[in-house]
Write a structure and sequence with these properties.
about 140 residues; 4-stranded antiparallel sheet; single chain; alpha+beta
Length: about 140
């Protein structure tokens, strides 16, 4: 699972839908790999406005990446330093993959296992069904 993907995931438990603590999901026991890919500045520039930057910083720090800029870049690097920062972000967001481990909801504590780079978001029935539906059966 690419690190970028986590920025678009929230807890699937219905009770967590309205809780701010259900995003971002937090990694635990994560095994990380880096898979090189061609640098794509256009994609990175287009995806930056869609990212929740505080969540990126939190998740990156949990995985040991502490050199993420405190503020979201604008995506138009002008200096050599800004271009290198964009390349570093590309590496972090698109080349960094969590292969094994789990993600935890900060609200309910539900664990989503990650195996071979794929997160399992299937919920047991008692978590995925609303209380009204369960009592009407």
């Amino acid at each position: 699972m690419k690190l970028l993907t986590v920025n678009f995931l929230t807890c699937a438990v219905k009770a967590c839908k309205s809780s701010a603590a259900s995003f971002p999901l937090h990694f635990q026991d994560a095994e990380v790999e880096q898979r090189e890919m061609d640098y794509n500045p256009t994609f990175l520039t287009n995806i930056l406005p869609r990212l929740e930057w505080d969540a990126i910083i939190t998740v990156a720090a949990e995985l040991g990446f502490t050199n993420v800029p405190a503020t979201k870049p604008d995506g138009n690097p002008e200096t050599e330093e800004e271009q290198q920062m964009m390349r570093n972000l590309h590496t972090l967001l698109l080349e960094t993959e969590v292969m094994e481990g789990k993600m935890l909801c900060g609200n309910c504590g539900h664990e989503y296992r990650i195996k071979e780079g794929i997160a399992n978001f299937l919920l047991p029935n008692h978590l995925g069904t609303s209380r009204e539906v369960m009592t009407s059966k």
